[in-house]
Amino acid sequence: MSSGPALVSILRQGDILVASVHTALDDAEMVRFQEDLVEQIGQYRARGVIIDVAALDVIDSFAANTLRSIADIARLRGAHTVIVGIQPDVAFAMVSLGMGLAGVTTALDLEEGLAHLAGIRAGTRSGPSGG
């Protein structure tokens, strides 16, 4: 990635990784994000992953497919994924275009995403449901 402002930040909070996407990513940047996140899941033995997309005003089909792939890869590596912060207009456009995130858990915001992962850890599934 460039030497300018970070496009994505990945922070560790215990055994949870919180990835915040700060700006729209092109296809190559999405692939790099996926590779970096998957690598860190193993490196930090993450049990949960939250991807915050609140800053995005568009999620195209490639980005939606990449987010689904990240969730699938994370699950195969033993981590649960929650996508948080999808803006109302983005959700509307995605549904209108038939681009869902089927099989991927979504939540309104970071707080709800963390609560969902805590519920999984505690053996309950309260909070947001798969979207």
Automatic annotation (TrEMBL):
Q: Which InterPro entries does UniProt cross-reference here?
A: Bact_StressResp_Reg (IPR051932), STAS_dom (IPR002645), STAS_dom_sf (IPR036513)
What sections of the sequence does the record tag as coiled-coil? none
CDD domains on file: STAS_RsbR_RsbS_like (cd07041)
Q: Which Pfam families does the record associate with it?
A: STAS
Q: Which organism is it from?
A: Knoellia flava TL1
Q: Where is the STAS domain?
A: 6-117
Question: What name appears for this protein in its UniProt entry?
Answer: Anti-anti-sigma factor
Which domain of life does this protein belong to?
Answer: Bacteria
